[in-house]
Write a structure and sequence with these properties.
The protein is an alpha/beta fold. The protein has 15 helices and 21 strands. A six-stranded parallel beta sheet has the order 3-2-4-5-6-7, with helices on both faces. A five-stranded mixed barrel has the order 17-18-19-21-20. A three-stranded parallel beta sheet has the order 9-12-13, sandwiched between helices. The N terminus is likely disordered. It binds S-adenosyl-L-homocysteine (SAH), iron/sulfur cluster (SF4) and FE3-S4 cluster. Iron/sulfur cluster (SF4) binds next to helix 8.
């Protein structure tokens, strides 16, 4: 909205305003703007993945950010966190400076998550907060990107109710940020560019990483699993893998820069390489090469149980820098619920896989994701989840109440489980999750663990905090010089979700 439009809208009565909005809104449909379509996003064709490695910032945009500052708010998963690092890289390449202060920013982006309704509500709440700032500073650009922008209903709602937003762009359009910004500076209307396509792989994008200790490395994008509750296959496109060489070069470069830990990222990393037409190369092969790189810790997330093959287990069992922690979402302990979730494994198969992995990697730390209150979930089915949780003895879990996502098959299912029952189940599950975590933590008393020190503890700057290979949070008193290194800490006290200890020595020869 420009200055004149704003004045005009302020003069309108609520009734007129509605009409005006209707009129403006319809204009967007006359104009061919690039809007999202969940229907198109669902398509999976046979065409090979397109790889692009020719990303450059057009000469004419190189000074766009001079004297301007950007701020990106990130919601959702690690994939989004990493996309934010890429967008920050693009902003910096355009000459912008980073800021954490909304009042100082000339461009604010909300990198959004669509996984559950409450994730979306947070973003709409934030838009509400930003409106007065935009009215005060008409030159401020506000953008919405990430998974929510891939949803038609979200784009329509922003068009109707948040007209002060200047740009909306999708997860496939990140590399187009310079052009989108350019258009937003020129245009009086909201710039919308959301491609609902299966997706390409774009290399050579600039990145500004958030820290110097741990780094994310994308190994693949998208998801083809189409679990019946999940929006991700619609918002992120098809499964497509980066070439091993690109990944290995990136990891080597991070090792040379002194990074201590990398996490290989994908929505379903076990499907890595399935899309290669010219070679038989899977996650096990990739991990086998990465394990030889001189970087102390290598993690990967997220694993889908379905594609977890024997070769991968064999490679992980070699240990070294491949850490002894696996995140293996189960979602439910009931085979009939797993079936309607379309997870493509049942309780027994999951337990068999866990037994196989545990036999190969002793003392493994296992974590998971669980959804309670799936449509029509019975008390018995929920209890199967509790019993599976106990049987596996997970170290931790992310637990969620099912949230219907428009466009997914589960959203059309009738549901006879009242919200109060769902909440109660979540509480019961969380009580078990806490109980088992506290028990596991107790076993650490008196033991010495290796901690990658990330910084000062959030609660007390005199205390340092870091994680073990098994992803246990450890707080201890130690010198600030330990930050960024791996040190030995003797555990003196245990809590439900963390360990306290004393530093024993600095382990310099960590590699
Ligand atoms: N690709 C990962 C999960 C990504 S989403 C995997 O399949 O393991 C992270 C978690 O969010 C999921 O594991 C699931 O537990 C939860 N989730 C996804 N969609 C949800 C929904 N509609 N309602 C509630 N939780 C959901
Ligand atoms: Fe969603 Fe299932 Fe894909 Fe995970 S595997 S992102 S839960 S569809
Ligand atoms: Fe959310 Fe998209 Fe990640 S929906 S969980 S940000 S892939």
């Amino acid at each position: 909205m420009n200055e004149n439009q704003r004045k005009e809208s302020q003069l309108l009565t609520p009734e007129n305003q509605d009409k005006k909005i209707e009129k403006d809104y319809s204009k967007y449909f006359e104009k061919v703007y690039e809007a999202p379509s969940l229907k198109d996003a669902k398509k999976r064709g046979k065409e090979a993945v397109q790889y692009h490695s020719d990303f450059t910032i057009p000469e004419e945009f190189k000074n766009m950010g001079k004297g301007r500052k950007f701020l990106i708010r990130t919601y959702g998963c690690q994939m989004n966190e990493h996309d934010t690092e890429v967008m920050a890289g693009i902003f910096m390449a355009l000459g912008y400076e980073a800021t954490l202060d909304v009042n100082e920013a000339n461009v604010i982006l909300l990198n959004t998550c669509a996984i559950r309704e409450n994730a979306e509500n947070k973003v709409f709440g934030e838009l509400g907060h930003l409106k007065p700032l935009k009215l005060e500073k008409p030159d401020l650009l506000i953008g919405v990107c990430g998974c929510m922008s891939q949803e038609e209903s979200v784009v329509n709602r922003i068009l109707k109710k948040h007209q002060f937003v200047d740009m909306i762009f999708g997860t496939h359009n990140i590399h187009r940020l310079p052009n989108i910004l350019h258009e937003a500076y020129l245009s009086k209307e909201m710039v919308i560019e959301v491609w609902s396509k299966e997706g390409d792989v774009i290399e050579n994008l600039p990145k500004v990483r958030k820290g110097k200790i741990k780094a994310w490395v994308n190994i693949m994008y998208g998801c083809d699993k189409f679990c019946t509750y999940c929006i991700v296959p619609y918002t992120r496109g098809k499964e497509r893998s980066r070439h091993p060489k690109e990944i290995i070069d990136e990891v080597r470069h991070l090792a040379a820069q002194g990074y201590q830990e990398i996490t290989l990222l994908g929505q379903n990393v076990n499907a890595y390489g399935k899309d290669f037409k010219d070679m038989d190369y899977r996650l096990g092969d990739l991990m086998d090469e990465i394990r030889k790189i001189d970087i102390p810790r290598v993690r990967f997330t997220t694993s889908h149980p379905r594609d977890f093959d024997d070769h991968l287990i064999e490679v992980l069992a070699k240990g070294g820098n491949l850490v002894d922690h696996i995140h293996l979402p189960v979602q439910s302990g009931s085979s009939s619920v797993l079936k309607i979730m379309a997870r493509k494994y049942n309780r027994e198969q999951y337990l068999e896989l866990v037994a196989k992995i545990k036999a190969a990697i002793p003392n493994l730390s296992l974590t998971t994701d669980i959804i309670v209150g799936y449509p029509n979930e019975t008390e018995e089915q929920f209890e199967e989840t509790l019993s599976l949780y106990r049987e596996v003895g997970y170290d931790a879990a992310y637990t969620y109440i099912y949230s219907p996502r428009e466009g997914t098959p589960a959203a059309k299912m009738k549901d006879n489980v009242p919200m109060s029952v769902k909440r109660d189940r979540l509480q019961r599950l969380n009580a078990l999750v806490n109980e088992i975590s506290a028990e596991k933590m107790k076993a650490y008393l008196g033991q010495t663990v290796e901690v990658l020190v990330e910084g000062e503890s959030k609660k007390n700057p005199d205390v340092l905090a870091g994680y073990t290979t098994k992803s246990k949070l450890v707080n201890f008193i130690g010198p600030k010089s330990a930050i960024g290194t791996i040190v030995k800490v003797k555990i003196t006290d245990t809590k439900t979700w963390s360990l306290n200890g004393e530093m024993v020595e600095e382990t310099v020869e960590v590699r």
